[in-house]
Design goal:
- By secondary structure, this protein is mainly alpha-helical.
- It has two domains: 416 residues, Growth Hormone, Chain: A (Up-down Bundle), CATH 1.20.1250.20; 54 residues.
- It is built from 18 helices and no strands.
- Helix 2 packs antiparallel against helix 6, helix 10 packs antiparallel against helix 11 and helix 10 packs parallel to helix 16.
Length: 498
């Protein structure tokens, strides 16, 4: 951030109408939130460059996408429950639970002797990660008004920048010079510090009023998402798309999802209030988040695979190529935050993202055996610039459009659809790559053949960028509130105030 922004932040923090917790408590809480976000963000990037070596050592390339999908499944199915429960009981206990589960999963992954054990550890990591980032973002919404959040995005951007730079580089270095197992063990010291800060720094919430928890809805949502994921992962790889197992899983996902919607319409306190979708900002943001999540994680997973197996580079080199993607995301996230805070307008920022995303993936469809790392770096930077304009801006828009009592579930829902997109997108992309390779491992195909198998992944991502553009065009402008008490003009907010 610029020095003038820092001065502005310092002056605003002394105004309790803007920052109700005051300067000291806001900084302590914010620091704890950033540690939790760093824990989850670092793991996403540090593992990506180690995955090719992990699957080779544990003899499980056919499960390549599962190492990622198990993590995303665990994270996805818990996000709505974390959001709803934290709205009722406060963010602190569930943030602590997330850190504990994430640490347990990291230990299991680091000690894994088989792909099954590794995938189980990744699932447990995901169960913890499902609460870390969305609860951190929701908690920021609790203590900082929408108009000022853009300035704080510069600080969160530094956290993600650190994880983006350190993650791929450290992951690649550990894989080449020590062991990929340290990519998981390195999480533990950071988790210990985060636990201490969150335990003592967070404000304890008074005992809540009596509420009913929608466990049936949570079960239907969880099983429906799991069935859909299994169908996407197994289809075309372990089983033909037309097999009874795949068709049955898809039918189960449809039936369970339908039952979830019907149940949510009648239950007293739904885990995912369906009336949120009646608000244009929320509905459009969920579609955009789903598309962006699928495209972004397609790049995160398959660009390192291209660099290592097509260009024949080391894990460290693949990390060096992936790092600019993250830096591109962080750069435009910071710029977007500044623009939104200064102007109060987020629609122009959102609409600029998808075209950049599409251009970046279009360029990636042209890479081949003779492509230099510099060219790939240029392409992934453009992808990152497009993603960065949308991710945090969508969250600010959604939080501004709902009442404070539903910030947790609304924020978690956006994260849920982003991870659903990432989960489904990577699974489908993995199925495409495996089908193009004819079911054989990467060690048995030529670099040119593997490059041809990866090109369709980037073509799919171009289509996802088009969907994201169509979605953000429907996001209306709602004036960003300058204080926590100020009333916005969103119809949903006015209904809550009535």
């Amino acid at each position: 951030m610029l020095s003038s922004d820092i001065v502005t932040l310092r002056n605003e923090m002394n105004d309790r109408s803007i920052y109700p917790l005051g300067k000291r408590r806001t900084l302590i809480v914010f620091f704890g939130l950033m540690l939790g976000m760093l824990l989850a963000a670092l793991d996403q990037t540090i593992v990506s460059t180690a995955l090719p070596q992990i699957t080779q050592d544990l003899d499980g390339f056919e499960h390549y996408s599962w190492v990622f999908s198990a993590y995303m499944l665990g994270a996805t199915v818990t996000v709505p429950l974390y959001g709803k429960l934290s709205d009722i009981y406060g963010r602190r206990p569930f943030f602590l639970l997330g850190i504990a589960l994430f640490s347990t999963g990291s230990i299991i992954c680091g000690l894994s002797m088989s792909m099954g054990m590794l995938i189980a550890g990744r699932a447990i990591q995901g169960l913890g990660a499902g609460g870390l980032i969305p609860l951190a973002v929701a908690a920021i919404g609790d203590i900082i008004p929408p108009r000022s959040r853009g300035k704080w995005q510069g600080v969160t951007g530094v956290v993600f920048a650190a994880s983006s730079v350190l993650g791929p580089a450290v992951g690649g270095w550990l894989t080449d010079n020590a062991s990929w197992r340290w990519c998981f063990f390195v999480n533990l010291p950071l988790a210990a510090v985060a636990l201490v800060v969150v335990w003592f720094g967070f404000v304890r919430r008074p005992a809540p009023e009596k509420h009913t928890i929608d466990y049936v809805g949570a079960l239907l949502l969880t099983t429906g998402a799991a069935a859909g994921l299994l169908a996407a992962v197994w289809g075309g790889t372990q089983y033909p798309w037309s097999s009874p197992i795949i068709i049955g899983l898809f039918l189960a996902a449809i039936v369970l999802s339908t039952a979830f919607v019907l149940w949510e319409r009648r239950t007293e306190e739904p885990i995912l209030p369906l009336d949120l979708f009646e608000e244009r900002t929320f509905a459009a943001a969920t579609v955009a988040s789903l598309s962006v999540g699928a495209a972004m994680f397609g790049a995160i997973i398959y660009v390192p695979l291209f660099v290592q197996r097509v260009l024949g580079e080391s894990a460290s080199s693949s990390g060096a190529v992936l790092t600019p993607l993250m830096l591109g995301i962080i750069t435009t996230s910071i710029i977007a935050g500044q623009i939104v805070s200064r102007t109060g307008h987020y629609r122009p920022v959102l609409m600029a993202g998808p075209p950049l995303l599409a251009v970046g993936f279009l360029l990636l469809t042209q890479i081949g055996v003779g492509t230099s790392e510099l060219i790939i770096t240029r392409d992934v930077v453009i992808v990152g610039l497009g993603v960065g304009l949308m991710m945090q801006t969508l969250t600010v828009a959604v939080q501004n459009s709902v009442g404070r009592r539903r910030i947790g579930v609304a924020t978690a829902s956006v994260q849920f659809f982003r991870t659903v997109g990432a989960m489904a997108g990577v699974s489908v992309m993995g199925a495409i790559v495996t089908a193009r390779l004819g079911g054989i491992g990467t060690e048995q195909v030529s670099p040119a053949e593997l490059a041809g198998a990866l090109h369709p992944v980037f073509v799919v991502a171009i289509g996802l960028a088009a969907v994201a553009l169509a979605a953000v065009l429907f996001v209306p402008h709602i004036e960003l509130r300058r204080t926590m008490e100020e009333t916005a003009t969103s119809p949903e907010l006015l209904r809550e105030a009535a």
